[in-house]
Write a structure and sequence with these properties.
By secondary structure, the chain is an alpha+beta fold. The chain has 3 domains: about 190 residues, BirA Bifunctional Protein, domain 2 (2-Layer Sandwich); about 120 residues, 3-Layer(aba) Sandwich (Rossmann fold), CATH 3.40.50; about 55 residues, no CATH class. The chain has 15 helices and 23 strands. The chain binds one RNA strand through helix 2, strand 11, strand 14 and helix 11.
RNA sequence: CGGGGUGUGGCGCAGUCUGGUAGCGCGCCUGCUUUGGGAGCAGGAUGCCGGGAGUUCGAAUCUCUUCACCCCGACCA
């Protein structure tokens, strides 16, 4: 049975019992998508808003997902010959001022550090800033300028190129409208910065890193992406070209999920990243930068989660298998727990991330907790299973229709396969939905008609030449849609729609 | 930063118009019965009603002022 069929069947069954099936998350996606999103996060215990304005606390379960994410992405980055390093959080204002377009793009959202000391404030009994800095610092919104400073020191000869450096870091952009994972004032990411001797190499590199992100999104996060190039208006400030992968979420809005920029010689000019070429000539390097952020966790939620909460792709799931002992009679407790322990060890030996819930919580609470946290495989073990040498397991993405009871040996033999199937199936479902949300139109009138009908969700795709049409500006304004990208896979076509 | 909304036990809300002992549901704790898709009964704990200033004999309630969060725009990974 496919996931769609299973879900359909599930819905039909629930439909018979009650008009409105009980869901773990309220409101449902259909009722209120933004609130549903928040509720999924808190129900899964992933993160919460912090006392610090615009910032969030990533709780252990959410952070564990991020750690698997990092691990997978980091190994891919290294395979591209990139080395990790770390640069300062604070950037002297004068470095930041060097690249004019860059300043225009980020100035409005920079946090500025102006003092280096606190002293008692006699007026209110608290503390006040003192020790004004001779030169203000900004908290990095991105690090092109400060890394450029280092690159100008590190790069002297064509022999020093290419130079490929990545850092895992937090950055700060003073956001007006924060949303957990999607847009917070402080967020975590990796930012790669590469330098080359030629323009061709730089452009190839920025496309290659985008392809890496696309592959990562597909195979690790099970998220299909629309890869393409940003239009000039949507470009990174200071870039010659910006390449992007866009996810189309369940509500039809697009989410820019990672970007890779060909910076040309803009930053090497302002930071003076120059080298002596083979023929002894002084030349400016060609640089790229590329980043993917904790926003991707938000994409994962909005792509995969359902009205019962989170569904985590097995590749990044903190617990891939969750074992719930079902204990009726205290006399069986230690036997059942031992049985569960044995299974847990066998799964660990297969490098499966397994969690055994031996807590005092009631069984149904454990089950719903497991569902809301989106654990891929739930295993229930009671006296019945134990005595028959069995276990019962259920896949999170399919639900109760996937409930299977079989022997421990049979399960251990195929658990890896089940997880792989689920990973693939999550992608397939997401891919089908993404494609169903892209609507081809021939004219701007057709696009207008599409967005004017409130029943329509998704994005439109049309000939990129229409972007020059005056009516396009009106379309953008009326429906707050923007060109998401010039689609690589559909040459000459642009994707247009609402976005986060 | 503009327009709208909301701040009341851990969470969700009522009470505010018309000032007069702070309430409900869920959760939490204790006990018993339960336990395979959100258990039942009984008892119990938890609030400077977002902060500050006023008006008043008296303020969750009226006035002013601040702060935070949510939704819609503009901006953005």
């Amino acid at each position: 049975m496919t996931v769609q069929q299973a879900k359909q069947k599930n819905n039909q069954q629930q439909g018979k019992k009650a008009k409105k099936p009980k869901t773990a998350i309220t409101p449902t996606r259909a009722e209120n998508f933004p609130e549903w999103y928040q509720s999924v996060i808190s129900s899964a215990d992933m993160a919460e808003n912090s006392a610090t304005r615009g910032c969030m606390v990533i709780k252990p379960y959410g952070y564990a997902i991020w750690e698997h994410f990092q691990q997978e992405l980091n190994s891919r980055i290294k395979k591209h010959g990139v080395k990790n390093a770390y640069f300062p959080l604070l950037i002297p204002l004068r470095f930041f001022e060097k690249e004019a377009e860059h300043v225009d793009g980020f100035a409005k959202e920079c946090a500025v550090v102006t003092h280096h000391r606190l002293e008692p404030d006699s007026e209110n009994g608290g503390l006040k800033p003192a020790g004004e800095l001779t030169e203000p610092m900004i908290i990095r919104p991105t690090s092109e300028t400060i890394i450029g400073e280092s690159f100008s020191n590190w790069i002297n000869s064509y022999r020093d190129l290419p130079l490929k450096i990545n850092q895992w870091a937090n950055v700060m952009r003073w956001e007006m409208r924060p949303r957990m994972f999607l847009r917070t004032s402080e967020f975590m990411w990796q930012e790669g910065h590469n330098a080359f001797a030629t323009a061709t190499e730089a452009d190839e590199d920025s496309r290659k890193m985008l392809a890496m992100y696309e592959e990562f999104a597909k195979n690790v996060m099970a998220i299909p992406m629309i890869a393409g190039e940003k239009t000039a208006d949507e470009r990174f400030p200071g870039a010659v070209a910006t390449y992007t992968i866009e996810a189309i979420l369940q509500d039809g809005k697009a989410l820019q999920s990672a970007t890779s920029h060909n910076l040309g010689q803009n930053f090497s000019t302002s930071a003076n990243i120059s080298f002596q070429s083979q023929d002894g000539e002084e030349k400016l390097a060609w640089t790229t930068s590329w980043g993917m952020t904790s926003r991707m966790i938000g994409a994962m939620i909005m792509m995969h989660a359902d009205d019962d909460g989170l569904i985590v792709p097995p590749k990044v799931a903190p617990h891939q298998v969750y074992i719930i002992p079902v204990i009726h009679d205290d006399a069986d407790r230690s036997d059942i727990l031992n049985y569960c322990e044995n299974l847990s060890k066998r799964l660990q030996d297969q490098d499966i991330r397994v969690e055994l819930d031996a807590s005092e919580k009631r069984t149904p609470d454990k089950m719903w907790g497991c569902i809301k946290q989106g654990v891929p495989l739930r295993v229930e073990i009671g006296k019945r299973e134990m005595e028959a040498g069995n276990i019962t397991h259920t896949r999170r993405d399919i639900g109760r229709d996937s409930k299977t009871t079989e022997t421990v040996d049979a399960f251990c033999g195929k658990v890896t396969g089940i997880l792989d199937d689920m990973q693939q199936s999550m992608y397939d479902v997401a891919y089908a939905r993404t494609m169903s949300m892209i609507h081809d139109v021939k004219t701007l009138d057709e696009a207008h008609a599409f967005f004017a009908d409130k029943n329509n969700v998704g994005q439109v795709r049309f000939d990129a030449s229409l972007l020059q049409d005056e009516a396009f500006a009106d379309l953008m304004k009326e429906f707050s849609v923007t060109p998401r990208c010039l689609i690589f896979a559909n040459e000459g076509k642009v994707l247009v729609g609402r976005s986060y």
